[in-house]
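#help-structures
NK: newbie question, is this the right format to request a structure? protein is MFS transporter
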Amino acid sequence: MPGNKTRAFAVLWGGQLLSLAGSSAASFALGLTVYAETGSTAALALITAVSTLGSIYLAPVCGAVADHMSRRTAALVGNLGAGAVALLLAWVAALGAGRHLPVVLCLVLAGSLLAAMLSVTLAASVRELRGEADLTRVNGITSFLEGIPTFSGPLLGALVHSQFTPSLVFLLDGLTFFACAAAVAAVRWQGRPRATGRPLRPFAGAAGGVRRILADPGFRQLQLTFAGVNFLNGLSVASATAFVVAASSAGAASWNLAAVGVAAAAGLLLGSTVVVVLARRVPRQGLIGGAVMGAGLLGRIGLAATTAPVVWFAASAARSACAQVANAPLTAIWQERVPSDIQATVFGARRLLGQGPYPLAVLLGGVLADAVGSAGLMVFTGVGELLLGAFLLASSRVRELSRSARGPELVGG
């Protein structure tokens, strides 16, 4: 049985690596295609907004649906559905994505819902397949796998889009999902049984997941703190871009922005590696709080403190690395302390509560940056993250949650 679970874990996350590369390439190509055919920045913003609706605001509903199935069935449904959406996008791209924007938006929404379902299913499967043995380190490994496509995806999308046809990118994306589904179908593991005798009520289940988090003092404190972290991050996203562009020498802005993006992708892999190395050496609370403080100090204040591009690249890499260092032990806490049969639902609710403020903060940050300046807003948000990180380090409730759960599953409330 352990061998079956190890093989299933490798198949699930190996397939995730493949499908994420395809999805990253497809997302890049979709933006290029729509903008080339419409010339409208508003159309690109609309695609992003619709995607956010599914991936963040409807994530609890997707989790409730996933919890109604076995993890294996949910992974199959998610991959097959996402593959079908990708093939439909290939067809629409061949007809002209810009001329059929409403159809594209519907497909983007469907794809984001299926992606959210897959994401919470995979996160919930970690504990089922790996037990409770060093989940922080295991999440570091999965984060590393998820970070690899941030390099390869855009490069693949740009290559296929420029040398062939945009439809081919979406076709390849669909094939990667179908390949993942075939791999999942080929493995067997004895996991959590499918929910039987319980009616499927996704919206009621989603509301229950939110209530469960808010009813537990420790989880409520943790989630509200990270809602603040994500809000501050959203406030400064536009400022970071504007600062790099404005402070760049003539003709270097686009190259500097590209290098900052590559550095951020490298930081994701670096942070995952750091987690794997430190998981057994540093307490979870230290990793989480220290990483939040590091992101604020290095990634925001450090970026705003100089006009030297090499420092910007280092700051971007450091911020992404800190995000990964915080995320792995944080995910391990939820995996250990939430019952297996509702993990996808609770993970979806966690995404809503934690990331829900982010899109609104991005809009607000653009207005504030014009009023106080990009550098000033980044320093403000960096100081805010330093304070929230210090709070996480000092919190007794976070300390209690951070202790590895041994024995009965704990939810509290």
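mod (FA): yep, format's fine, and the tokens are attached above. Residues 405-413 have pLDDT under 50 and may be disordered.
NK: thank you!
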